[in-house]
Amino acid sequence: MAPASAIAALGVYIFTFNCGLTAIDSDAVASQLFNALTTPQLPDLLVLSLQEIAPLPHALVGGSFLVPYFAKFHDAVEKASKKLGGEYTAVVARNVGMTALVVFAKDPAAVRDLETAGVGVGLWDMGNKGAVGVRFTYHGSDGETELTFVAAHLAAMEDEVERRNQDWKSIVRGLVFSSVSKSAGQATSLSVSSEDRPLLSISPRDASIYKPTSHLFVAGDLNYRTSSMKPSPTDYVDTFPQPHYDTTHNNHFSNLFEHDQLTQEHEAGRTLHGLVEERITFPPTYKYTSKEPFLTPDEDLIQWHWAKHRWPSWCDRILYLPLPSWLSKPGAKIVAHKYTSVPLFPTSDHRAVALSLSVPLVPIPPPQEEEESDDPRIKPPFDVSPDWKQSRQRARILELFVGFTLYFTTTWEGAAVLVAGVAGIRKKEGEGQSPLRIHLGGKIALTAIIKLAFEKLACNAPFGPKEPGLPVSGILPK
Q: Superkingdom of the source (predicted)?
């Protein structure tokens, strides 16, 4: 219990990582997961923002195709938390294509009024790039507060800064929250898709990313670079930072940060409106080559092995919305304890980034109608798209089509299913069966293939028709 004169605080730990389209090494992630902790005590909430969580076919189809990839993170969290003498329960996991968000809680019953949202901003609005959001009220013994977490993955390449800004606009317009369950901590079965649940009977503002009564945290591979052009052949030697350069050296990474696109676009009011970021004191998080030593702290490195065709950049970021001016609670403040990157993992060319902070456990009241403020909770930069749901449904159909096509044509597992089906048809031909029976047999084989594929979609999620998802709790098998 907090002293009577103090405001209780909720410990929140946010970890963002571009997984590189492959399953992680659980032991490696576990060894570095809590690098941003400043005390040995586990925070109340652990939030994982994951990009490129799986190969494209598996991610677009989703459902149980993704369970092995989520399970790796469950193992990592379990191992890391046990080292600190605690444990977590996964209360929600959601994805849109290759972008995923997982929330763990020490007290899952404290997570209530769960809402989720998702939007694709990739090709034809599919989820090769996009964002996924989770919103809930945390009910602690000393108070409560509403929190919104968003995992995002924006467009790549140095010269695509305007596209990244447009992706952010699409996220603000298309990330619309709808209810999943009354209490995540009490949920034990699969959630249902949003086509079975109406849009919340509230104002679009309250269903948007900028809800006036909620905290907001955005984490992900935002992909903003340190140049609008690719590096020249000489830049690698003449300009790229290295660990032995001190702050007085022209090539120290702090000088490179002066060209950070996110900072420039944010200050110009073109992206991440209203959000703030703690001061960056760590080296660029992208792009490392396979020569870079894994799990090695910067102070033990002689050289950073940068990819020569990409400017070293801080692609991976975590930002949050400050407390609103209408929260007149003396002593209430968000306290950031540590913002840092972690050593490189063996499965990615990105370094993960983590932020530990304390959030006041007090509700944010609705603003008064006459409230004048530039806070985006009151004046959002963009309106919610009126056809957000239809757009997501259309994109979801495309994701399934593209995902299954790629699964059957580019993966060994999918090819094996097709070969088995074709072999069955040819066997019938060899047995001299009538064309009608062969046709029926082929139809049965094709039906079996499709049935097998759709059985992979074991669960529904609240993003549109037959959106793959995972149960609200108990979702990650050991």
A: Eukaryota
